[in-house]
Amino acid sequence: MTTADAAIATPGSRSIGGVLRIGLVAVAVLLPLASIARLVADPATNVHLHDNVQHFVITSNVAIVAAAVALLVTRAALDLKHYGTLLVALGFMSMAGIFAVHGLSTPGVLIVGELKEIGASMVVAASAQLSLLIPAAFFAARYTPIRPWLQQRVRADLLVGLTILGLLVYAIASLGWPAELGAMYVGMTGMDQTAYSDSDFRGSYRDAAPWLQLVALAVLGLFGFAGWRQWREHLRSGLPTHGALAIAYVLLAEAQIAMFAGDVWSLLFWSYHVLMGLAVVLAIGALFLELDRRRGLERFLPPNVVERVIVGDRLSLEGERRTATIFFTDLRGSTALAERATPEAAVATVNAYLRVMARAVIDAGGILDKFTGDGLMAIFGAMSDPASGARAAARAALRMRTDLGVLNTERSARGEPTVGYGIGIHTGEVVLGAVGLPERSDYTAMGDTVNTAARMESLTKEIGVDAVVSDATATLIGAQGTRPLGDVTVKGKLSPIAVFALADTR
Questions:
Q1: Residue 209: is it exposed, middle or buried by C-beta count within 10 angstroms (0-12/13-18/19+)?
Q2: DSSP structure class, residue 382
Q3: CA 101 to CA 173: how far, in whole Å?
Q4: If you ran DSSP here, which 8-state letter would residue 111 be given?
Q5: Reduced to 3 states, what is the DSSP secondary structure of residue 410?
Q6: Phi and psi dihedrals of 439, rounded to 5?
């Protein structure tokens, strides 16, 4: 079974596997909680271990590894243009950055001097809470209307830049002016400044201002919400990567509990660091696997179909009726080119044009259905309203007109052969879904709309224009975007169809 086949096949009911998964999750969730409860119930076992150097080494190393891997996942998410995964990656990036400040601010290691060390102890305390609060907000945002709102208003690369800038500003301020920031934190929270600098001190976050405890409860709620939503995706898809990420969220919630339940430098205090490290390793590994799987699936399936597969949606062989815009494009003169050139040169030339055409479709948000020899078929608007799909198809056609013109100019200047092209666009009802056998299927569109769009592309040769759209598509695009060509009789149609040329209104 190919990757695409495995993607389309819906996971069957695996009762034994389901029980095992639930058992593993129960162990992962209950074991740390049981340990925390044991230490809280028996204070004698919650021993005091004050070691500034070890604290610096552990936190700094975990933060460096987490930051490096988070950057790699962020880069992959940007390449795949997957905003949801990007939010999770940025959550772990912020966790790594703030956790690094938490470690680097350890009094008596890099920061020396009585006044600075006292302030640094409060920077450590503030960073401990922020290293959970900020990531929790990123994680929860992935599963709320905030994600599409951000996606429409904030470019992915800009969001990454703002996150990195915020982390740098926080790090510079914390490490450069620890006394000032520490005094500010004391004034806000009422915490004792000797918490991290005095080896005999046994205070905790429980002694801080009530609002800080409310923040801790909010963090638990955000992690709980993210974990619940992620676990639902795991149940729908059966993918272990979703389950691993859900467990990571639970571990981070338990880290928050350990932080507030234990005194500074107690075993519970160190448990917070251990749980943070485990969650980072588990989640980053899951994200790598998910992105690798997504990258492999997108070689065979459109990105929006891959998204449905990843979250466990069923793609039935019966298909779904939808109104969509079908887009056909084909090269002119490629047959003559194949006769004059060597097979290798002909293939290289066709591939050069196909890459330009495919990129125009993908960047406009279309589904690249299939390559048709020296052309392609694409679908627009299948996952949105028909007007948006028609306008996106027009944008793709105009982009092709520009980019293929540039390519022909460059090739002509090098003395290489150039070819023409034709584009046909039609909007109507199609059957969209997995077509074929359960063992081997293709995701495509079928119906009279597809046939009519192909006829529109053929008309470009007869009419002498590079792009022809049907009346149904022209109505959705608008009068300014098209130029009427009159009525034509199309093969397979009893009545003439009004057709239009695509005008460049940019």
A1: middle
A2: T
A3: 10
A4: B
A5: helix
A6: -80, -25
The C-alpha angle with vertex 374 and arms to 369 and 378, in degrees rounded to 5, equals: 20
Query: Could you give the residue ranges of the DSSP H alpha helices within 81-113?
Result: 83-104
Residue type present at position 217:
L
Calculate the alpha carbon distances from 95 to 151, 178, 289, 349 in Å.
22, 20, 20, 48
Q: What is the pLDDT of residues 424-470, one digit of tens each?
A: 999 999 987 766 655 555 678 888 899 999 999 988 888 889 999 99
Neighbour-count burial of 57, counting CB atoms closer than 10 A to its CB (0-12 exposed, 13-18 middle, 19+ buried): middle
Report DSSP state, residue 377.
E
Contact 404, 467 (CB under 8 A): no
Residues 6 or more apart whose CB falls under 8 angstroms from that of 460 comprise 422, 423, 424, 466, 467, 468
Task: List pLDDT tens digits, range 88-112.
Answer: 889 989 998 998 898 888 887 787 7
Q: What are the φ/ψ torsions at residue 81 (nearest 5 degrees)?
A: 55, 45
Q: What is the pLDDT of residues 331-373, one digit of tens each?
A: 887 777 767 778 888 888 888 899 999 989 888 878 888 888 8
Q: Going from the N-terminus, what domains does the chain have, and what CATH number goes with each?
A: 52-305 (1.20.1070), 315-502 (3.30.70.1230)
- Other CB atoms closer than 10 Å to residue 99's CB: what's the count? 28
Model pTM? 0.62
